[in-house]
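Hello,

Our lab assistant flagged a job as stuck in the queue for most of the afternoon. It eventually completed. Since we weren't sure the result was trustworthy after the delay, we are filing this so someone can double-check. Below is the sequence as submitted and the structure that was eventually returned. Let us know if re-running is recommended.
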Amino acid sequence: MTEKEWSIRTSQEAIEMHERYIVQTYRPHKFVYARGRGVWVWNPEGERKMEMLSCYSALGGGHCHRDILQAFVRQARRYWPGSNAFYNDVAPLFAKELVEFCEMAKVLPINTGAEAVERVIKIARKWGYTCKENVGDSLGFERVVDAVETAKTWGRKTKGIPLDTAQIILCDNNFHGRTITVISASSHDKYKRYFGPLTPGFTLIPYGDLAALEKAVTPYTVAFLAEPIQGEGGVVVPPEGYLKGAKRICEKRNVLLVWDEIQTGLGRCGKRFAYQYEDAKPDILILGKFLGGGPGQVSAAVCNEKVASVLEYPEDGSTFQCHPIDCAAALAALRLIQDEGLPERAFELGNYFRAELEKMKSPRIKEIRGRGLLIGVELKHELGGAKPFVTKLIEEGILCNQTREHTIRFAPPLVITRREIDWALKRVKKVLAGP
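-- returned structure --
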């Protein structure tokens, strides 16, 4: 097949074919990607726009970063995925680099973020049934007395709770993916209305509320799973002390602490991980998006010693787990983050970006939130929503999106320069600084 045969020549042709042949689970804006370099992208007609969404944080290195592209192509020329019945010579290098980068014990590589969340739910539940020490007496709970007998029916020892009783606490307004089990833990009816029966075993509490977390823990609680910043939920930063307080409660009540940093991790928020703003290191860290560098489809559950060996053969697996081409791209991305100081860059440029937005003193803006280069601009609700303003920004050359109804999300590639941010700010001010 020649390049001409698989290339689409016009934006309209791409849109019409997309709507004809692809199930419409998204409502894309009317811009068609045809080429990209760094923070810039072009449509088939050659119109240039700035990337300010980064595929929901997946493009930390921008489009077609040389180092990531070279690693991806180099491995693609060596061999493609083999069976997990055998080892390969790329996945161990990636795993070692990631575990050391995170200062953890082991990693379970997976393809998508939602899959990684699903795996963590499996890890947490099994840990609860086979490893969790019963701390009920010291906390005033009624002791779980039938746990050992229940587990014996499955030929397993247990230190904790009866089988099929595990509970995981999550937060309202969360977003962890759209698989059946993950949407079962969502507070948004639009994600789950027509997909029951849903998976049981989840408790929802208000985000940022430590008292609610303390109250929600029971002898059957195995984990608290949350985002250190709710990205899809409107770029919501929790109150100061929340992350550290959650860690304290989890340690006290012998509950696993899990941070979903699929969108916020790997330098996006001005540190390697957003939880580091409060030194609230988790038992399990969920990563994705930029972990694959852009072309790679890699997510991961990175575990400490407490849970690193909970899953055993044949309890989990995936055909493309440890995919060598994806792992090569991921390894290049991890080295790029460190070699180019992307977390520090995001911290500095993110502070500059938000400060310049604050200087606008726009009567349309209700609040500016975020950390690093994950920024949410919430508009006043009487304006009727952020979507018309997103459309105007796209027309001005800035590819961004709304998150929830009233917030515009900016998440440029971490390699963006101050000069490029100034280019964007000029257009943001034009759209938002009106009467």
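-- support follow-up --
The delay was a queue issue, not a problem with the job. The result is valid. The domain at 3-52+342-429 is CATH 3.90.1150.10 (Aspartate Aminotransferase, domain 1). The CA atoms of residues 276 and 304 lie 16 Å apart.
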